[in-house]
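Our consortium's second objective concerns turning raw sequence data into structural hypotheses that experimental partners can test. To show how far this objective has progressed, the report includes one record in full. It was chosen at random from the queue rather than selected for favorable results. The single chain below, 279 residues long, was entered without modification.
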Amino acid sequence: MRGLAEYVMSGRRQAATVAVLFGLIPMMNLLSAAVVALVGLRKGPREGFLVMMWALLPAGLHWLEGETASVIMVVGVLLLSQVLRRTQSWQQVLLLTTMIGVLLQLSLPLQQEYLDSIRDRLVTVLESGGGLQSTPEGMTVADAADQIMAVWENVYGVSHVVVFIVCLMLGRYWQALLYNPGGFQQEFHGLRIDRRVMAVLLLLVLAGLAGIQPLADWIMLFCIVPSLCGLAVAHRVVAMRNMNTGWLVLVYLLAMATPLVLALGFADAWMDIRKRMAQ
């Protein structure tokens, strides 16, 4: 990772080359956005914009094929990198990311042609996998496609927010690796959100659990920031206590299977767990 980051920062041509190459490879285009984030964080908006334009070439090809996420990812990560560069505040970045996720959810009704194309491809995949035999008894391929699309639409904003955060954090990690060793770990371990903001997020989650629409469909979106704070608390506690990293594996498993890490993030806003443990 360090060698790749050093190569990217050795010049604009090198950064653009890496951004284009990774952008062409499915499932590796996250690294293309992370390159844009690194350049934007270190060299500012002008250089970040120029590298982003190169990264948009493969992303544009994906767009022509009906996949819009790559373009949104690259543009969004550059925007967020500049907010972080100017404010040095992960709280502001994460709140802006959540707002972008909400806007993306709200934009779905305006993307009907895109949604129809995704559904058509999904129907084709289901039919090629055995037609009606690949679906539960009494359910047609069209019904199965509609159910999958309903789930996908509910997590549309969530998936983008997660990608934004992962790419930006990877770019920040590379920046710290080259110019401020240990800086990213210090930032992440100290990640904490103002209790007033957490109170609003908690109310939104509770309103969603009460069935209020559209908040009920966006619960996962409002849980991302407190869950990330819960992970930050866990990482800090493990480091403070010199515990085995196997505990972090357990924490991530709990984060996927239970709401414990989410509850930890909310609780830390009022209790400041890391400060109490340090004392």
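The partners drew two points from this record. Residues 190-279 form one domain. The radius of gyration is 20 Å. Both points have been shared with the crystallography group to help prioritize constructs.
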